[in-house]
């Protein structure tokens, strides 16, 4: 009887793992990365099975004194948390600044843009002269480095030049590859964009 009960529990555990719907203490949204038509653009399906499971969007337990609506970026572990009520948060996998481009501090979301124009900073153009053709801005689109959405970060000194933004490069999630911006998969930045409000506090650890 004990063996039969153990077999049932094992089968249920395996079934939950295969379904990609939930884990202990969290709800995982692995099925939310399909193709999306948004503002006339056709975002392709993300091959989420190739992205490590910990970087799939999920609701998790999260202990913080920050109020709901706060965004906390854990650059070391490559997670972004959107704080909810009752000790919960939505967690997203992210890509962060590569060596020499890391930063930390507190900011706030000053602007939100759907399908933003990307203008490379002058310093970036100096490093990569081939980007000079975008000095007046790169039109929105599937190849635009800011992806489907961007949240613009400001502090007391004004525009920091950093963004929380989408990226067509889903395989960069979980890595340090950017010039300091925090990148998410396009389907994730759309979700975060709809949750976050202008004025939201952003803490980069």
Folded structure, characterized:
Strands 1-2-5-8-7-6-15-10-11-12-14 form an 11-stranded mixed sheet. The radius of gyration is 19 Å and the shape is globular. With 205 residues, it is α+β, with helices and mostly antiparallel strands. It has a single domain (2-204), classed as L,D-transpeptidase catalytic domain-like, CATH 2.40.440. The model is unreliable at 1-24 (pLDDT under 50). Strand 1 (22-23) and strand 2 form a beta hairpin. It contains 3 helices and 15 strands. The chain has helices at residues 2-19, 122-127, 186-195; strands at 22-23, 26-28, 36-38, 41-43, 58-61, 71-74, 79-83, 88-93, 96-97, 105-114, 149-155, 158-167, 176-178, 182-185, 201-204. Its EC number is 2.3.2.-. This is L,D-transpeptidase. Belongs to the YkuD family.
What secondary-structure arrangement, pairings included, does this model have?
Layout: H1 2-19, E1 22-23, E2 26-28, E3 36-38, E4 41-43, E5 58-61, E6 71-74, E7 79-83, E8 88-93, E9 96-97, E10 105-114, H2 122-127, E11 149-155, E12 158-167, E13 176-178, E14 182-185, H3 186-195, E15 201-204
Parallel strand pairs: 6-15, 9-13, 12-14
Antiparallel strand pairs: 1-2, 2-5, 3-4, 5-8, 6-7, 7-8, 10-11, 10-15, 11-12
């Amino acid at each position: 009887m004990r063996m039969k009960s153990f077999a049932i529990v094992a089968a249920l555990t395996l079934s939950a793992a295969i379904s990609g719907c939930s884990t202990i203490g969290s709800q995982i949204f692995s099925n939310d990365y399909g193709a999306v038509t948004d503002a006339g653009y056709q975002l392709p399906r993300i091959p989420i099975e190739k992205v490590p499971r910990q970087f799939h969007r999920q609701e998790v337990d999260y202990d913080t004194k920050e109020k709901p609506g706060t965004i906390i970026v854990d650059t070391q572990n490559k997670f972004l948390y959107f704080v909810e009520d009752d000790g919960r948060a939505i967690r997203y996998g992210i890509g962060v600044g590569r060596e020499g481009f890391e930063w930390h501090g507190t900011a706030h979301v000053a602007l939100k843009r759907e399908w933003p124009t990307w203008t490379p900073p002058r310093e970036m153009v100096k490093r990569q002269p081939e980007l000079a053709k975008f000095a007046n801005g790169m039109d929105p689109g599937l190849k635009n480095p800011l992806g489907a959405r961007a949240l613009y970060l400001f502090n007391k000194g004004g525009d920091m030049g950093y963004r929380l933004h989408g990226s067509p490069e889903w395989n960069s999630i979980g890595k340090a590859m950017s010039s300091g911006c925090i990148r998410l998969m396009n389907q994730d930045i759309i979700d975060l964009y709809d949750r976050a409000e202008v004025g939201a506090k952003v803490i980069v650890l």
